[in-house]
Structures are given as structure tokens and as C-alpha cells.
Amino acid sequence: MMRFASVLAGLTLMLAVPAIAQTPAAPTSPVAAATSDEPVPRAERAKARQDCLAENVALSGDDLRQAMRDCVQGKFPGVQLYARDGLTRDGKPTAVAARATCKTEADERNLSGAARREALTACFKAKRPDLAARAECRKDSRAKGLDGADLRKAVADCARAVQS
Predict the structure, then answer these.
(1) How many domains does the chain have?
(2) Structural contact between residues 52 and 68, judged by C-beta atoms closer than 8 angstroms
(3) What is the per-residue pLDDT across 140-153, written as a single tens digit (0 to 9) for each?
(4) Cα–Cα distance between 91 and 95 in angstroms, integer?
(5) pTM to 2 decimals?
């Protein structure tokens, strides 16, 4: 019964996707397009996601996620859309890769306790200062008792102020 329901939902989605694709997209202003530093415009990415979803309607969960990632990346072969090989789209190490490198360095130096913690923190701040600043902003905002939307707004404002 569950399989029937998921197939029915997929067919419904398949019928709805062409209708969505035919609706005119909101016009983008030339100013917004000129100031955007995105490698692929939003409208093109949205169209590619719709097409890929229609192609992979039978999948779900991790299978769908990976198929969508492969499909969308395939539609824009000259542009790196996703982090891979430990690097973000803009060439910075991912947080996971930076932490792993810092842990390896700390292990090589046989650090433990407070010295290890300080070395890991300093290493991560050196490799990803943007993420380290956001972590500090988040810690300060939580100390003020913020959470939810207020916490997200405070962290974003704080991180922008730090990067300026």
C-alpha cells in the first residue's frame, strides 16, 4: 500500500512539474543579475532542479540526493556547484577537511588536554577564519539567551560585522 502511495505521489508530481515549468518566471532585474556572484543564475539552477527531479521521481532519500547532485552538476559541467575533494566551491577547505587536518597535526605533535584544544582552535581559525568567527558569534548570542530566528539573525549580523 505504501509503495502504491509513493508511486501515485510521483506520478502526481510528474504531472505537476510541467505545469510549474510553464509558468513564467519572475523577471530578474539587471541590477540583481549584475551584482550576483553566483556562477549559475538562480532561474537556470531552478529549471535544472525541476528537470532533474522529473528524471529521478522514483528515487528518495540519499539515492535521490545523490542523483540530483549528479544530474544538476551534469547540466553545468564547467562550473563546480558542490563541495568535493575537501574543498568548497570557492576553493577553501571544507570545515570537515580543515578539522581533520588540524587533528592530524595535533596528533603528530602528541598534544593532549588543554594544549590540544588550544592548538585545534588556533589551527581551525587559521584555516577557516570565517567559520571560526561565526562560531564565536553563535556562542556569544547563545550566552545572551537567543535562539531560533533571533539567534540566526544575530549570528548573521555579527559575522557580517566581523568580516567587514
Answers:
(1) 2
(2) yes
(3) 999 999 989 999 99
(4) 12
(5) 0.54
